[in-house]
Design goal:
Rna Polymerase Sigma Factor, Chain: A, mainly alpha, globular, 0% strand, 167 residues, Arc Repressor Mutant, subunit A, 2 domains
């Protein structure tokens, strides 16, 4: 747990965007892993196995909260200051704007949970395609396609910000 907790906590935080929830989820992940050690197979590493448990736990939580009312994207645009969007507009790509964690958080929260998950695994956790394939239990082609769609969706959120006249 000491060795893998920081990565699991970071994954949970990148999906749940709340430190307390992420800490609770990470603890639950390790409890579940401990109780399920007999189900661990050697066809993947322990880290990818525990990433899968964490991803499932966070996605379950997100799905259970889906009925909770959220601000609309337009509402967020109206209440946010222009400086927030100007900083993003001045960067040439989404990747270069990842330095601004507040911006990234606002963009990521507008994406479906599945897109947040794959982006977090690749961009935050730094997993390669093969590791992501094991965590998500899908093919390499599926990982590439999902990552492509997630990046397109991210670009669409950014485009919405720009066309709304806030940049």
């Amino acid at each position: 747990m000491r060795r893998h907790y920081p990565k699991i906590f970071c994954l949970c935080l990148s999906l749940l965007k709340n430190r307390a929830l992420a800490d609770d989820a990470a603890q639950e992940v390790f409890l579940k892993a401990y109780r399920s050690l007999d189900q661990f197979r050697d066809d993947s590493t322990f880290l990818t196995w525990i990433h899968r448990i964490a991803a499932n736990r966070c996605l379950d939580f997100i799905r259970s909260q889906a009925r909770a009312k959220e601000d609309s994207l337009d509402g967020m645009l109206e209440t946010s200051g222009n400086d927030f969007f100007k900083e993003f507009a001045n960067s040439s790509t989404i990747e270069s704007s990842l330095i601004n964690s507040d911006l990234v958080e606002k963009i990521m929260m507008r994406l479906p949970a599945e897109y947040r998950l794959i982006l977090a695994l690749r961009e935050v956790q730094g997993l390669n395609y093969q590791e992501i394939s094991q965590v998500l239990e899908c093919s390499l082609d599926s990982v590439k396609a999902r990552l492509y769609r997630a990046r397109l969706a991210c670009e669409e959120v950014v485009r919405h910000f720009k066309t709304a006249g806030f940049v």
